[in-house]
């Protein structure tokens, strides 16, 4: 039929935007698209969240980084502590001793080992989290009661989570001001052969070792001395 669309609806009744009179014209919405200084609520809250996150991250990261860097560059000063005459340390024995570290450091417990013809001073601090390890004379080994760390007679790890062997101290024997005997082949050991019984045993600064008993600067509990993980400590 003339005057209608194919669907039978007159042209003036087709769907579309209303173009007739309005009772009230709405206020135009200003999007501030062209105003670079305008800050929307979403933009403001996002900025607050980012700033807060940065402050929180800094509060956590700065002490950690400071701790890691300080530990990496610090080292103990050279010092020696007299722990008694050689006659106090019979062969084939390991004794536990409290040693005043000196230099403002706290006292430490040392396992003074005189076996296989050499003296060795092992720190009783577990290399995992720093718990005190105990010595078993029957097995000639060390164990940590906190998390099951186990070490052999030389302090090398045999089980558990410790990342490295037990730390050691330098040790030497002197008579008067003269050293007697010689350094052993293992790191930090001393062969007192030829020393008189009244010669004095001295314990020096602490150092760390790897599984091959190579010496390193003293490391903190949980810190690797080799491998990629040493660069991630303490993260």
Task: Tell me the quaternary state.
Answer: single chain
**Helix content percent band:** 10-25%
Count the beta strands: 14
Structural class: alpha+beta
- Tally of separate helices: 1
Distance between the termini: 83 Å
Beta fraction of the residues?
Answer: 25-35%
- Average residue pLDDT: 80
Topology pattern, helix = H, strand = E: HEEEEEEEEEEEEEE
Highest-level CATH class of the largest domain = Mainly Beta
CATH superfamily of the largest domain: Rieske [2Fe-2S] iron-sulphur domain
Provide a concise account of the structure shown:
It is built from one helix and 14 strands. The protein has one helix spanning 41-73; strands at 81-85, 93-99, 108-115, 118-123, 134-136, 141-143, 150-151, 157-159, 168-175, 178-179, 182-183, 190-191, 200-209, 215-216.
Explain the overall architecture.
The chain has 235 residues and is an alpha+beta fold. The protein folds into two domains: 30 residues; 145 residues, Rieske Iron-sulfur Protein. The protein is built from one helix and 14 strands; from the N terminus they run αββββββββββββββ. The strands form three sheets. Strands 1, 2, 3, 4, 9, 10, 13 and 14 form an eight-stranded antiparallel sheet that branches. Strand 11 and strand 12 form a beta hairpin. The radius of gyration is 37 Å and the shape is rod-shaped. The termini are far apart.
């Amino acid at each position: 039929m003339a005057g209608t669309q194919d669907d039978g609806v007159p042209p003036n009744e087709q769907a579309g935007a209303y173009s007739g009179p309005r009772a009230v014209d709405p206020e135009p919405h200003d999007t501030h698209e062209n105003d670079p200084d305008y800050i929307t609520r979403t933009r403001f809250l996002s900025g607050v969240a980012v700033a807060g996150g940065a402050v929180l991250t800094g509060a956590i990261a700065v002490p950690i980084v400071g701790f890691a860097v300080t530990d990496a560059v610090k080292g103990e000063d050279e010092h020696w502590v007299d722990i008694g005459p050689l006659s106090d340390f019979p062969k084939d024995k390991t004794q536990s001793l409290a040693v005043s570290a000196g230099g403002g450091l706290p006292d430490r417990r040392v396992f003074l080992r005189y076996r296989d013809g050499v003296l060795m001073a092992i720190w009783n601090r577990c290399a995992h989290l720093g718990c005190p390890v105990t010595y078993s004379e029957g097995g000639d080994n060390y164990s940590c009661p906190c998390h099951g760390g186990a070490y052999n007679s030389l302090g090398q790890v045999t089980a558990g989570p410790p990342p490295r062997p037990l730390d050691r101290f330098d040790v030497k024997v002197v008579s008067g001001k003269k050293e007697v005997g010689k350094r052993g082949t293992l790191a930090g050991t001393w062969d007192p052969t030829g020393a008189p019984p009244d010669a004095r045993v001295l314990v020096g600064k602490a150092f760390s070792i790897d599984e091959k008993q190579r010496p390193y600067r003293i490391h903190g509990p949980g810190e690797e001395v080799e491998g990629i993980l040493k660069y991630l400590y303490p993260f």
